[in-house]
């Protein structure tokens, strides 16, 4: 799929935008377990990918009222001809405020209306109660347990799905 993604999406409370070099310190502090050298290269790759014609699926989540960095969200291509998987990561102090749900719904809106995707999936660890509640509250349906995208773990994950029709039936006027 060759398209250019928007630099910014907005919700009532959030700005969902492409990363900039100024985000680096926030992201590194967020990803404390990742070595700075390796993460620096990954981060530069994300920044440079915005100039390509490929799908860019990493977005910074910024709180509008104080321009605070909350975390990130986006879409990941699993394999050719497979649905994309959604994801989000929030700083702990921002959990439980509905930001993940709000950001995912906006990502779904963009994916279905602009990218013309038919469905989006999520694989969530069975012990991640907060994660599967976000998936459900974002409009996704639990479809059972499956081996996740990282099949090296040989561990089943909870499988969630939302298709375009379900999204529009739930959230469009």
Task: Describe this entry's structure for a reader.
By secondary structure, the chain is an alpha+beta fold. It has a single domain, classed as Aminopeptidase (3-Layer(aba) Sandwich). The chain has helices at residues 24-30, 36-49, 99-113, 129-137, 164-171; strands at residues 8-10, 14-17, 58-63, 68-77, 84-90, 119-124, 141-147, 156-163. It has an eight-stranded mixed beta sheet, with helices on both faces.
Quick overview of this protein structure:
The chain has five helices and eight strands. It has 173 residues and is α+β, with helices and mostly antiparallel strands.
Return the average pLDDT rounded to an integer. 81
Distance between the termini: 29 Å
Structural class: alpha+beta
Share of β-strand residues: 25-35%
Could you name the ranges where pLDDT drops below 50 across 5 or more consecutive residues?
A: 34-38
Order of secondary-structure elements: EEHHEEEHEHEEH
CATH superfamily: Gcn5-related N-acetyltransferase (GNAT)
Biggest pleated sheet: 8 strands, mixed
CATH class: Alpha Beta
Principal-axis shape: globular
Tally of discrete structural domains:
1
Please list the strands of the largest sheet in the order they lie side by side.
1-2-3-4-5-6-8-7
Tally the helices: 5
């Amino acid at each position: 799929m060759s398209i250019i993604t928007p630099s910014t999406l907005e919700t009532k409370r959030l700005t969902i935008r492409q990363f900039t070099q100024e985000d680096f310190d926030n992201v590194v502090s967020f990803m404390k377990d990742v070595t700075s050298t390796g993460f620096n290269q990954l981060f530069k790759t994300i920044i440079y990918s915005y100039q390509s014609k490929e799908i860019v699926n990493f977005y910074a989540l910024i709180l509008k009222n104080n321009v605070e960095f909350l975390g990130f969200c986006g879409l990941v291509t699993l394999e050719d001809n497979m649905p994309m998987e959604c994801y989000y990561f929030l700083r702990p102090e921002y959990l439980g405020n509905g930001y993940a749900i709000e950001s995912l719904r906006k990502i779904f809106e963009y994916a279905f209306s602009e990218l013309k995707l038919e469905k989006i999936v999520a694989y969530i660890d069975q012990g991640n109660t907060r994660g599967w509640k976000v998936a459900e509250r974002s409009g996704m349906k639990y479809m059972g347990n499956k081996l996740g995208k990282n099949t090296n773990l040989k561990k089943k994950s909870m499988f969630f799905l939302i298709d375009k029709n379900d999204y529009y039936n739930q959230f469009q006027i």
